Amino acid sequence: MTVDQIAFVRDGFVHVPGAFPRDVADAARALLWERTGCDPDDPTTWTRPVIRLDGYGDEPFRVAANTPTLHAAFDALVGAGRWRPRTGLGTFPIRFPHPDDPGDGGWHVEGSFGERTGYRTNVVSRGRALLMLFLFSDVGADDAPTRIRVGSHLDVPPILAPAGDEGLDFMELAKQAVPASADRPVVHATGEAGDVYLCHPFLVHAAQPHTGRQPKFMAQPPLDPVGELVLDRPDGAYSPVEQAVRLGLGVRR
Fold it and tell me: Example GO molecular function term (predicted)?
């Protein structure tokens, strides 16, 4: 499968159906159930709206992250030689049908560097080549699909550029990026187990409560870059990620 680079630059994401096999998703989901401490056959054990699990390097997660389909998509969106293969996946926000609000449904842009001092984001996207959403269960409209503001990644570069290499911290960026993208259309990241959404690192997105019947299993790891984005390349060999940042900054060539 060839990903649509034009759509990625325009919308800020592409949906890759069947990016990894369903049986790999099933095996990974079984491991995740064990680590939640919940019983998949007993909803009375689903006592929290969300359980967050750290990254794992078990075989199903390694396989899911390294299919030929995904590697080709990374090359197409980030550039060959500009990303690092993953050895596993994480983090995992496991969302359960539950009457309580999960408390993490605010619109935001992911932070990418500076873990010890609070996550930050800068205009050359230090520490993140892509945001990725790996679906390990079928996700319908009622199953807490991630909400995406289409084209919102174009609203973020003008906010980040004045902050230079230091960038903005998570809350500083959200306070500006959320109102700047408020008029963007919203789509939901629905799909089947084995699907992946590959998102621009500046995409404004949000979680939401689960109103369906079966828990949602998803990983949302970064794709790690080899270096930072280069927004002034003498050879003009810009990746779609870089093209979108330049477009957001008003650079047309």
Answer: dioxygenase activity
Q: 244 in a domain, yes or no?
A: no
Specify the number of domains making up the chain.
1
Is 233 part of any domain?
no
What pTM, to 2 d.p., does this model score?
Answer: 0.96
Is the CA virtual torsion 49, 54, 58, 60 positive or negative? positive
Residue range of the domain that includes 26: 5-225
Q: What is the CATH number of the domain that holds 185?
A: 2.60.120.620
Token pair of 162 as six digits: 């004045």
Whether the bond between 91 and the residue before it is cis, its omega within 30 degrees of 0, is: yes
